[in-house]
């Protein structure tokens, strides 16, 4: 660490701040657009209003979108955490014959273009005679998100000592007791972060929902259909509200993780 | 004991494997099946022919495939150059600031890519955040860079930056400081250390980062639609219109299949070589 020159260090810090500033610039634009009074947006903004945000919060149409998005995200979170918990045990903990192959198979959906996956699933649902709805969107999200929760929980599973489980078993605990009393509490921080990731990734997902949710529009899908059909102030207002919601949830999740860590 | 572990491993892998078989492997097999069906049929119960591939060549659909691959290659190269210094800082220099960057970048991942790209649209358009303020303060604006291929590459660089940054930082943290110091003591210059010490030792991270960004940007759709304004047709556009307006599933399937095969060829070989246990921090 000490061999990096002072000027290089300062340049790197500056570069880091610059990249972060550029990364957040579009959200700044969306935020300003959401509170601009003019119907046709031009910068600099002359008059501000909270009218659009208020309208977005009370509109019944928006309520339907939020309910659909929530239904999808909550179902995906619960299922992907369960799948990921067992998947992570097979990934990191148990020594079994096809573990190496399994580890690699799990990675494939993450390395796969989502729009193509969404279209492939659309054809598959059609071939099965299933009408796309929010339930098929759940399946599509799971294909991408369950491998991610598996990896997150697996990272946690790598870091604990398997001797703890063996000790419990030697003292006569059954397989399910070991799972419930030893493995589950030890993996809890990983499970919480995996759940957080699952919810937020599903809430914000666009390419998979676009093709697989049928007539049940999620929030990102609806926003997209409005974006390509022309500007209205509703788009930035809803967009920024959704971002604020995600950020709030993330903060709550991080606080929960801190609490867990302190307790251990 | 060992037999029990074997059985438990298999059993706990079962649920997620069932999910992936039913909703990842099977859909891809169906796509492969439709790719060799005659044009415009909606079931797999026909005699296979390869007319879709003839259409792809004769009607020039291969151009959008090449375009997508080219743009993806460009995106990957730019991202590597942009992310290397930052990843280096995160792995070796920053300390606590690394956590700030990680959190800030991960938080952006949770914002829909279409909202972020829409934000760039508002930033870069005529009368947008940049041009509008410049005009108000300096009295002169600039032509909007929207609606062309460079802005699509820009959008993809922006959206896929985390997928290059984190693997690179992970890779660079694998480079032992001693190796770098030893090379410096032996008189190697900055560039020589970069190319002969750091990059080879960080190779696993570089490989994962480049593969991820290439694959994701080759199959990207939102950037071209929201920033390119349909002026540039990328592969996924063609696939989408074949499946929707065109009502030609075999053509859409054949186009997807070509992308899938290229992705598979690129991804399978390196993935089969990586040792995931050490990369993910196994203790034993």
Strand content of chain B: under 5%
CATH topology of chain B: MetI-like fold
Tell me the distance between the termini of chain B: 19 Å
Average pLDDT number of chain A = 85
> Main beta sheet of chain B: strand number and arrangement?
none
For the secondary structure, the number of strands of chain B is 0
Tally of structural domains of chain A: 1
- Report the count of strand segments of chain A: 0
**CATH superfamily descriptor of chain A:** MetI-like
So, the CATH homologous superfamily of chain B? MetI-like
Using the coordinates above, name the CATH class of chain B.
Answer: Mainly Alpha
User: What proportion of the residues of chain A form beta strands (DSSP E)?
Assistant: under 5%
Could you please describe the fold and organization of this structure?
The complex is a heterodimer of chains A (264) and B (284). By secondary structure, chain A is mainly α. Chain A has a single domain, classed as MetI-like (MetI-like fold), CATH 1.10.3720.10. Helix content of chain A is 78%, strand content 0%. Chain A has 11 helices and no strands. Chain A has helices spanning 6-34, 51-58, 60-93, 99-107, 114-128, 134-159, 163-170, 175-204, 207-212, 219-229, 234-263. In chain A, α2 packs across α11 (234-263), α3 (60-93) packs across α8 and α7 runs antiparallel to α8. The model of chain A has no long low-confidence stretch (mean pLDDT 85). Chain B has 284 residues and is mainly alpha-helical. Chain B has a single domain (61-279), classed as MetI-like (MetI-like fold, Orthogonal Bundle), CATH 1.10.3720. Chain B is 75% helix and 0% strand. Chain B is built from 14 helices and no strands. In chain B, α2 packs across α13 (249-273) and α3 (62-93) packs parallel to α7 (149-172). The longest helix of chain B has 34 residues, at 2-35. The radius of gyration of chain B is 23 Å and the shape is globular. In chain B, 44% of the residues are buried. At the A-B interface, α1, α3, α4, α5 and α6 of A face α1, α3, α4, α5 and α6 of B.
């Amino acid at each position: 660490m000490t061999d990096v020159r002072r000027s290089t260090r300062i340049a790197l810090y500056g570069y880091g701040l610059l990249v972060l500033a550029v990364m957040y610039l579009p959200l700044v634009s969306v935020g300003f657009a959401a509170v601009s009074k003019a119907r046709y947006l031009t910068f600099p903004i002359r008059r501000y209003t909270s009218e659009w945000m208020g309208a977005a919060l009370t509109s019944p149409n928006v309520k339907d979108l939020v309910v659909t998005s929530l239904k999808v995200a909550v179902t995906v979170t619960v299922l992907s955490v369960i799948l990921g918990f067992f998947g992570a045990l097979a990934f990191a903990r148990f020594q079994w014959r096809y573990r190496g192959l399994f580890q690699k198979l799990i990675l494939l959906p993450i390395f796969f273009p989502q729009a193509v996956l969404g279209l492939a699933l659309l054809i598959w649902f059609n071939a099965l005679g299933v009408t796309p709805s929010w339930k098929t969107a759940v399946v599509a999200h799971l294909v991408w998100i369950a491998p991610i929760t598996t990896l997150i929980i697996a990272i946690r599973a790598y870091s604990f000592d398997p001797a703890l489980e063996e000790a419990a078993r030697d003292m006569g605990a059954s397989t399910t007791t070991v799972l419930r009393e030893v493995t589950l509490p030890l993996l809890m921080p990983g499970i919480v972060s995996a759940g957080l990731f699952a919810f937020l990734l599903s809430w914000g997902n666009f390419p998979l929902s676009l093709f697989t949710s049928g007539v049940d529009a999620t929030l990102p899908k609806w926003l997209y259909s409005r974006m390509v059909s022309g500007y209205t102030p509703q788009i930035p207002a809803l967009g920024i509200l959704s971002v604020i919601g995600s950020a709030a949830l993330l903060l709550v999740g991080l606080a929960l993780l801190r609490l867990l860590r302190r307790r251990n | 004991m060992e037999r029990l572990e074997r059985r438990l491993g298999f059993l706990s892998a079962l649920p997620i494997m069932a999910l992936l078989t039913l909703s990842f492997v099977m859909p891809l097999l169906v796509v492969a099946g439709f790719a060799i069906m005659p044009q415009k049929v909606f079931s797999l119960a026909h005699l296979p022919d390869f007319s879709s591939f003839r259409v792809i060549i004769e009607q020039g659909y291969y151009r959008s495939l090449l375009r997508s691959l080219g743009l993806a290659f460009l995106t990957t190269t730019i991202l590597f150059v942009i992310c290397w210094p930052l990843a280096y800082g995160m792995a070796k220099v920053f300390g606590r600031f690394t956590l700030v960057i990680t959190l800030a970048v991960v938080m952006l991942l949770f914002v829909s890519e279409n909202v972020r790209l829409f934000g760039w649209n508002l930033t870069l358009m005529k009368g947008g955040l940049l041009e509008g303020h410049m005009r108000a303060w300096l009295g002169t604006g600039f032509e909007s860079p929207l609606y062309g291929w460079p802005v699509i590459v820009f959008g993809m660089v922006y959206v896929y930056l985390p997928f290059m940054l984190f693997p690179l930082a992970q890779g660079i943290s694998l480079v032992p400081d001693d190796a770098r110091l030893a090379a410096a003591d032996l008189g190697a210059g900055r560039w020589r250390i970069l190319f002969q010490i750091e990059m080879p030792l960080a190779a696993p991270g570089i490989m994962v980062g480049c593969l991820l960004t290439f694959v994701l940007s080759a199959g990207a759709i939102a950037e071209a639609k929201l920033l390119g304004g349909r002026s540039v047709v990328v592969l996924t556009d063609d696939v989408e219109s074949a499946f929707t307006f065109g009502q030609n599933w075999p053509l859409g399937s054949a186009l997807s299949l070509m992308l899938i095969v290229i992705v598979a060829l690129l991804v399978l070989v390196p993935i089969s070589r990586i040792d995931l246990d050490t990369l993910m921090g196994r203790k034993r």
